[in-house]
Structure formats: structure tokens, C-alpha cells
Amino acid sequence: MVESKHTFNIENIYLNHSEFKSPRPFHRTSKDWRPNANLKLEINSVKHDDQFDVAVKIIVDVTMDKEEVFSVTVDQGGTFLIKGYTADEEEHLTESFCASILYPYARQKISDMITSAGFPPLHLSPIDFETRYRQLKKKDTQKA
Fold first, then answer.
1. What pLDDT, on the 0 to 100 scale, is given for residue 102?
2. Residues whose CB falls within 8 Å of the CB of residue 15, separated by 6 or more in sequence, listed in order
3. Residue 3 main-chain phi, psi, to 5 deg
4. Where are the domains of the chain?
5. Is it the case that residue 92 has pLDDT exceeding 80?
6. Which CATH code for domain 7-143?
7. What's the predicted TM-score (pTM) here?
């Protein structure tokens, strides 16, 4: 049996923080529901020996006619065992692969919070974290 020098395991998936804020309930908003959603995405990772704590933070601010309707924040975390990779490969794994594992959990939590508050569902589109990572690396290379 050949033993691989590379190890990748999902150790834990957890919710770091979630918050929902709205200045008024949905039934007090306009009947003509045409919201504008602005999504902010952050990916952070911290290395502890061979374990990485990775967090995908999503903030969605929804406005309508330039007035705040609601804001929702979810910080979804995970602990991953990553061994045998170079620093560049570790960065790639955490920023792309780990983020793609955590994003559906964050997206579901956001959806649940919005509908639990009485607002119509807001479905966030999937994100191609691999393409996002490559674009960010390309920008970094062009700046250097």
C-alpha cells in the first residue's frame, strides 16, 4: 500500500456568527417588492500547525428605493486538516476548495434568516471559488 504525503480532511463545520437587522417588518414595506441586494464576501484563514480555521463571511444589504430593508451577516467557519502541501497550495485550498465547502452552509443560513423574518426568499447564486481565486491571484501578479 502506497501512503500519500498529502492529507485533507474536514474536521468541523460551525457557525461563527449570524445577525439579521431590519428597520421595519416586511408587512410595512412597499407592496411593490423590487429589492436591490448588495453582497460582500470575505474569506479568512488561520493556520494552527496542520489545521486551518477557515471562515466565509457574507454580508447582504438589501435596499429598496434607496432605503434600507434589511442586512444579514453570516460568518460560517470550518476546521480543516491540511498536511503535505506547500504554502501556495495551502492558500489555494483554503481560499478556493474550503470556501466552496463552507459557502452552501452560509447561503442556507442566510435564506433561513430572511424567510424567518417574514421576508420573501432571497436566493444567492452559487460562486465559482476557483475562478474567483485565480482572478484575485492574477490581480496580485499584475500589481507586483
1. 98
2. 74, 75, 76, 77, 105, 109
3. -95, 130
4. 7-143
5. yes
6. 3.10.420.10
7. 0.90
